[in-house]
Amino acid sequence: MSKNSKFVTTLMCIGFTFLYIPMVLLVIYSFNDSRFVTVWGGFSTKWYGELLNNQLVIDSAILSLQIAFVTACAAVVLGTMAGIALVRFGKFKGRTLFSGMISAPLVMPEVITGLSLLMLFIALENALGIPERGFWTITIAHITFSMAFVAVIIQARLAGMDESLEEAAMDLGGKPLRVLFDITLPLIAPGMISGWLLAFTMSLDDLVIASFTAGPGANTLPMYIFSKVKTGLRPDINALATLIILTVAIGVFIAGWLMLRQDKQRKVDEQMAAMETTKDEQAA
Amino acid sequence: MPLDTKIEDRPWLDSSIEPFIKIQNVTKKFGAFTAVDRIDLNVYQGELFSLLGGSGCGKTTLLRMLAGFEEVTSGHIFIDGQDMAGIPPYERPVNMMFQSYALFPHMTVEKNVAYGLKRDGVPKLEIASRVTEILDMVELGQFASRKPHQLSGGQRQRVALARALVKKPKLLLLDEPLGALDKRLREQTQFELMDLQEQLGITFMVVTHDQEEAMTLSTRIAVMDQGDIIQIGTPTEIYEYPESRFTAGFIGNVNMFEGRVTNNSADHVTVQGTDGTEFYIDHGQNVKEGQKVWVAVRPEKLVINKDAVAAGPNQLLGTVDDIGYMGNHSIYRVKLASGRIVQTTAQNIVRPKDAEWAVDWDDKVTLTWEPSATVLLTK
């Protein structure tokens, strides 16, 4: 495009280079024949094969995926409930305080969240004997912070939604719970899906909080990778990272493509409707 | 008043008829703000009643209290004899058409219309036939499987109407029903709405800020301001017999003169304007001599005379300051000796250029009007 000046083009290139150089390097080095992560020794795919034989990596990856899945599902349910309550609940004193409090975990340093949860779990374990630290403690911790993100997304989505839609449904005879399932939830579904994905990735991504709340038997993938940094990285980690990047890229690409297609279809529909109106008016 | 229509068409004149909606001393407060202030209003079966007022006058709040979305702070609302206190929206015999139409974007036209019937547990076959029937009535039969975003504004408006009517409510509430349509479509739809109301016999209650819309549609209008009802009456009563300067000024254009009563007889009142003009009103009114009053004359009641007129009351002398040619009629702004501008309109019954007597800029003219066209206002 000729109207974009060289200056803007350069800026864009710098920005994207900054973002993607590390990842490109990582992908390249995943095909490194050398045993050292940072020394190039020729092209090879052997680390991908090694990866499949590394039971520790596979176990931690599966654990991470399981935690992320449970976290995302629970966070969407809880976060949606919180979001709806905060937006649709009538005005009361201290309402702003409550809305503000839901977003506190967003700005809280992870170390503090992790530490406070650890203390809670230890206290509970001393008092009740449960929970044993491992899968469930990590999951509970992840739900705690990711539901705040979901609640924020749902709040934004609800605020943009015409409240008279729910009123109309009620006016037509829908009881409040019915209206929630018939109207509100279908309309905020896109927000719930993005909330689910966000919670899933954040859980998959988290190292700090998981380290605090994990037990001796449970190692998530980020924890495993990080521990390897200390004991010596092997290129099979690069291969693993490349696979993750590939999966994410495919996911994002498909989602983007679907959204674009829907958008285009909508525009075409609206144009058609507008054209018919002019025809109707000419006829009338 | 010279209004000799049948009494069946004017149930509010018959004290033996029980009102369909009774609003008794209703107040609605939002915190310290009073949106609706001790309102009393009766609406009768089969009426097309309009609440007319500017934004923030309380008309929408009153409508929402009828629908059940707002609770009254004090007072009572009866619909068809039933006290509405504590009855949620989904149990009221009332349906509402929203200003934004509030069509469910994820449902087809058919599903939108069927929603209310489904919630009532109407059998599937009956739902299908009733939906088809009402969609045909609003001429949207072939759009049944479309989604709302695939419809034009006028079509959406009709879906909203069909959805609110399909449950055969006792009362239909319409919040600015034509507000989102462009002018041509609005005029056309006004008449469709009136036909539909007559055909179904359902009581309509319309909220609007558009005085023209209220005048064409309504059997009666309530003019509202700051949470109060200023005047209730038929469109003719509101326009021709306003009771206050607010009503006179809010509905249509008006030329308003301040003055004092000089003579008050049983059959006429004379008023001396502050600028010296003599006003003559051909009916008695409850005023005292010397009392400060206002005289209102509608622009179309004024006649422009180019030739001299024998001196008398109800005359204004001036020069034509401006002419607005509107095609079917023209608006003349006449500047009086006092510097005041008076507005008058005249139908262009002949082409202006052809007419001998055509009024032109800077012409000296005398404006006259019938004594019966003079409105005397005390507040």
What are its keywords?
heterodimer; A: mainly alpha; 12 helices; 80% helix; B: 379 residues; alpha+beta; Rossmann fold; OB fold (Dihydrolipoamide Acetyltransferase, E2P); 2 domains; 6-stranded mixed beta sheet; 8 helices; 20 strands
How large a portion of the residues of chain B is in β-strands, by DSSP E? 25-35%
How many individual helices of chain A? 12
Largest sheet of chain A: none
Mean pLDDT of chain A: 85
Element-by-element helix/strand order of chain B: EEEHEEEHHHEHEHEEHHEEEEEEEEEE
Q: Can you tell me the CATH class of the domain at 60-238 in chain A?
A: Mainly Alpha
How confident is the prediction overall: mean pLDDT of chain B?
86
Structural class of chain B: alpha+beta
Task: Specify the number of helices of chain B.
Answer: 8
Largest sheet descriptor of chain B: 6 strands, mixed
Which bin fits the share of residues in helices of chain A?
over 70%
Give a structural overview.
The complex is a heterodimer of chains A (284) and B (379). With 284 residues, chain A is mainly alpha-helical. Chain A has a domain at 60-238: MetI-like fold. Chain A is built from twelve helices and no strands. In chain A, helix 1 (6-30) packs across helix 12. Chain A is globular, with a radius of gyration of 25 Å. The model of chain A has no long low-confidence stretch (mean pLDDT 85). A six-stranded mixed sheet of chain B has the order 6-7-8-3-9-10, with helices on both faces. Chain B has a five-stranded antiparallel sheet with strand order 13-12-11-14-20, with no helix packed on it. The model of chain B has no long low-confidence stretch (mean pLDDT 86). Chain B has 379 residues and is an alpha+beta fold. In chain B, helix 2 packs across helix 3, helix 2 runs parallel beside helix 4 and helix 3 (124-137) crosses helix 4. Chain B is globular, with a radius of gyration of 25 Å. Chain B has helices spanning 59-67, 109-119, 124-137, 153-165, 183-200, 211-217, 235-240, 245-250; strands at residues 21-30, 33-43, 48-52, 74-79, 82-83, 94-97, 171-175, 203-208, 220-225, 228-233, 255-264, 269-273, 278-281, 292-297, 303-305, 315-325, 329-336, 341-347, 364-368, 375-377. Chain B folds into two domains: 7-248, Rossmann fold (3-Layer(aba) Sandwich); 254-377, Beta Barrel (OB fold (Dihydrolipoamide Acetyltransferase, E2P)). Chain B is built from eight helices and 20 strands. The chains are: A mainly alpha (284), B alpha+beta (379). Chains A and B meet through helix 8, helix 9 and helix 12 of A and strand 6, helix 2, helix 4 and helix 5 of B.
